[in-house]
Each structure stands twice: as structure tokens, then as C-alpha cells.
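Lecture notes, part 5. Sequence design as translation. It can be helpful to think of inverse folding as translation between two languages: the language of shapes and the language of residues. The source text, in C-alpha cells, appears below.
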């Protein structure tokens, strides 16, 4: 049975220390590993980087109250992969349809930057999640860190499938499609690396490849 790390998780000392700081600074926040959003029966898994300090770390739901979610969730709804009103709260009633969302690292990192060790430590939860999604067909990775994390836990060499926005990789050993997108972060949007229109095209591609 799939489980998410609980608030007693102490695998990553740096993240644990940061969590303890945030408990003092923001006592009303979730301040712990953030569980995935969506059903394990979904055919699509979106993998991001890590919770944002005032986003998922506050609300306890991936990409919620975070700028990245302001791009991600409307796009999913636009293409029929979500329903309801996204109101940046865990209890807003917003529902994913045939999609599940998670992160490579489940705890918020300082300055939104994770280490290789932290990605590796959380890899056990990621592979457990993948193994418990019986209908999974497509993995959408937001950014190179998520892309490499998925490859690592599935046993592929990173050199086999290089990250590129819009790329579709066939993971034949697992009968999965791995699709790449730049992360929907505020930085990427503000610098023009990614536009909402570009991301809409990615979600449309995911929807079409599922059919």
C-alpha cells in the first residue's frame, strides 16, 4: 500500500532543520512532507520539483497557493483534466480527473533548491507511488530535476533520455510515455522561458496522447 512520508521523516537533515525553522516562523502552515493530490487510479502523473514555502508547504496540497499552480491548474481544467474552482486552498473542492500530482522531493527546501541526496532519499516514495498506479500511462515531468528523478527510480540512464521541453520519451520497459515541460514557476514565466500558451500546448499533447 502506498504511503507518503509523515511529519516525523528525518531522512534529510537540511530539510528537517528548515522545517523546524518554519514551524517557529509559520506555526499555522502545514510544515511537513506534502502528500500527492489525485487518485492512484489515474492514467497521468505530473511530477514537480518540491513544495513552495508559502505554497504547498502552507496548504498541504501540491502547487496550491503557489504561482506554479496558477498556471498548472487552469491548464488542466481547460483540457478536461480537472473540475471545480481552484481557490488556492486544500479544501476548495477543486478535483483532478484522471490526473495525480506529486513532487520529486516532498518537503520544502531552502531557496527552492534541492540536493541530489534529497532527491535520492525521496526516490523510495516516488517509485512506491509509480508501482501503485496500475493504470498509469503518461508521466509529465516539470523540469529537469523531476525528469531525472523519474528516470533514476525506474532504472534508466539519464543519458538515454535527455530533458527537452515538449519531448516525448518512450519508456518501453515500463510501457510508459515520459513527457517533458519546463516548470511552471514564476521565474520561468517571468523570463519567458515558459509561457501559459506553451504549457497549454503541453497539456493538450498529454490529453491527445492518452486517447
Amino acid at each position: 500500500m502506498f504511503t507518503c512520508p509523515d511529519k516525523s521523516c528525518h531522512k534529510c537533515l537540511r530539510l528537517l532543520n528548515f522545517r523546524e525553522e518554519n514551524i517557529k516562523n509559520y506555526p499555522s502552515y502545514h510544515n511537513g512532507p506534502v502528500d500527492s493530490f489525485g487518485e492512484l487510479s489515474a492514467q497521468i502523473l505530473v511530477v514537480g520539483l518540491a513544495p513552495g514555502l508559502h505554497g504547498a508547504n502552507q496548504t498541504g496540497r501540491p502547487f496550491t497557493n503557489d504561482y506554479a499552480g496558477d498556471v498548472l491548474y487552469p491548464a488542466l481544467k481547460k483540457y478536461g483534466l480537472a473540475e471545480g474552482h481552484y481557490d488556492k486552498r486544500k479544501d476548495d473542492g477543486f478535483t483532478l480527473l484522471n490526473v495525480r500530482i506529486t513532487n520529486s522531493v516532498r518537503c520544502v527546501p531552502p531557496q527552492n533548491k534541492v540536493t541530489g541526496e534529497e532527491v535520492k532519499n525521496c526516490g523510495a516514495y516516488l517509485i512506491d507511488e509509480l508501482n501503485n498506479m496500475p493504470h498509469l500511462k503518461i508521466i509529465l515531468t516539470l523540469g529537469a530535476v523531476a525528469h531525472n528523478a523519474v528516470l533514476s527510480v525506474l532504472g534508466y540512464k539519464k543519458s538515454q533520455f535527455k530533458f527537452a521541453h515538449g519531448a516525448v520519451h518512450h519508456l518501453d520497459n515500463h510501457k510508459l510515455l515520459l513527457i517533458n515541460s519546463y516548470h511552471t514557476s514564476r521565474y520561468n514565466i517571468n523570463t519567458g522561458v515558459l509561457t501559459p500558451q506553451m504549457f497549454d500546448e503541453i497539456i493538450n499533447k498529454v490529453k491527445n496522447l492518452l486517447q
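The translated text above is only one of many valid answers, since several sequences can fold into similar shapes. The beta strands are 37-38, 44-48, 82-83, 95-96, 99-103, 138-142, 168-171, 176-181.
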